[in-house]
């Protein structure tokens, strides 16, 4: 039994009184502090709207080539000029209690915190519309505590000084909807070609889903993902009784027409190139879309304005105006791997889809240099001979058959050298080599060249049947031109803030992925497509260009029924182009099949005009030997056709060609050989 004494009771009472007394003053102090804070924010009045600063893009010569603010589309409209469907959809998905809270949804914030803790990651957002509005107007999107505190202060000030309708109107007029469209009016005009007040339920529910991630949920970026997001929004609208189940079903069933055109378009330089630069800023530097668009950055790019102008002019000149053929073009400086020009289509204003960096198409025979480099590493030389004839290849333990054919079904029906096989693009030689090396070897070799798309290790891979990107293909050829030194394509040299602080500067990161001597041998082999001495049973693939070129080029053309390619280089510059239809139609018109080569040559000749003619390097340990291309033997003065071939020293042929000696001379050579045999074997 516990006994409480009188003195103990008095001590307990004193402690209770002290705690209550201190608690009272603590609560009072906290209330006073909160009150003072609110009074201070009230006295500050309406927060001044921050004016966003333009992000400038500069070419390699320092000239401005684009300005983000100039390309932003902002058209402020009153709340009653916005479709009620859009307003309801936005509230349903972004902030259901918008009209009930005072800027903060504490219950939602707690739920998001619990969800994040359970997942051990940021999986659920809790920002109200007011908080997002404050962030868009006044703050960056970094995740520091300082920024979060500032956001809370601005949110409170906005709620104190503006009505809910004013806040909602401001939010809908400043939020980013992707593709340069800021605010609902610009977004409505861009995506659907109509004003915001005319949006249907189906259109409004698609637009309301974009701000969560414009690069993900834009119907132009991914229509399936945009539709998935629309389904979620319509379900939330039904839950909040904003629409009926019937309206939801009808909206999901409605087919919407996406225009993808701004009401007014800008005419800045190299829009496809700048789009690629913006993607690098997001992916490599981790900058959010708001900072990229309105952060006042100075982005110093690698663009060569002369190269870009020549590329655009040549594309416009060569491709017929009424043709639906689209081009994808890239040029890269081999020594630095700087991207000097890029075009992702004929006209950015009508089609912002960047085919140069996004499209994955079959490269055809432009893939063969990777195969022949692998062959050089595995004992082949340019003079290695294989038989070119109609062949059915069995693989997968004989279970499958692959029957490729040469262009126009032309075969040597005899042996050809690897150098001639590359020059005339002999498919039989390529597939034989691929199977001999094993297709997995070609996959691994292509990866060393920087090809990142999935490649299937099949016999047909030698003929370029797995899809690739133009940017990676041109950069792979630039790697060959740079003696086997690989680096990722470089778009940005430096990025500065508006205050001049350098937040990024490119540092070269070259890796010697290829053997320098073998890269030189491969380069010389690739000049063969322009050497008509290698034409015999078939013309070299550059025959139509040989009389138009003014300097040595190395390259390779390629084609499928749906794609035409040409990629090549000099020591100073690599360039490549793909042409084809977006919808995958076959290319049947004869003139359409010449576009790729004609654009490539027009660009290369124009870009090199007035520049010194440079020869490809022949590093130490590589020798040049005159070879008879018909038999791969060392040519004599009597051979009617010769081709200088490069070999790593010690791998060159030693046998001389005697097929074309004069009759007397040949008899003499035979007698010499016979006499030599008799001296060696006297009994015979």
From TrEMBL:
It is found in: Cell membrane. SUPFAM superfamilies: beta-lactamase/transpeptidase-like (SSF56601), Lysozyme-like (SSF53955). This is Multimodular transpeptidase-transglycosylase. PANTHER family: BINDING PROTEIN TRANSPEPTIDASE, PUTATIVE-RELATED, PENICILLIN-BINDING PROTEIN 1B. It catalyses: Preferential cleavage: (Ac)2-L-Lys-D-Ala-|-D-Ala. Also transpeptidation of peptidyl-alanyl moieties that are N-acyl substituents of D-alanine; [GlcNAc-(1->4)-Mur2Ac(oyl-L-Ala-gamma-D-Glu-L-Lys-D-Ala-D-Ala)](n)-di-trans,octa-cis-undecaprenyl diphosphate + beta-D-GlcNAc-(1->4)-Mur2Ac(oyl-L-Ala-gamma-D-Glu-L-Lys-D-Ala-D-Ala)-di-trans,octa-cis-undecaprenyl diphosphate = [GlcNAc-(1->4)-Mur2Ac(oyl-L-Ala-gamma-D-Glu-L-Lys-D-Ala-D-Ala)](n+1)-di-trans,octa-cis-undecaprenyl diphosphate + di-trans,octa-cis-undecaprenyl diphosphate + H(+). Gene3D superfamilies: Biosynthetic peptidoglycan transglycosylase-like, DD-peptidase/beta-lactamase superfamily. It holds the Pfam family Transpeptidase. InterPro entries: Beta-lactam/transpept-like (IPR012338), Glyco_trans_51 (IPR001264), Glycosyltr_51/Transpeptidase (IPR050396), Lysozyme-like_dom_sf (IPR023346), PBP_transglycosylase (IPR036950), PCN-bd_Tpept (IPR001460). Keywords: Carboxypeptidase, Cell membrane, Cell shape, Cell wall biogenesis/degradation, Glycosyltransferase, Hydrolase, Membrane, Multifunctional enzyme, Peptidoglycan synthesis, Protease, Transferase, Transmembrane, Transmembrane helix. Residues 329-572 form the Penicillin-binding protein transpeptidase domain. The chain crosses the membrane at residues 20-41. It comes from Bacillus badius. Residues 62-237 form the Glycosyl transferase family domain.
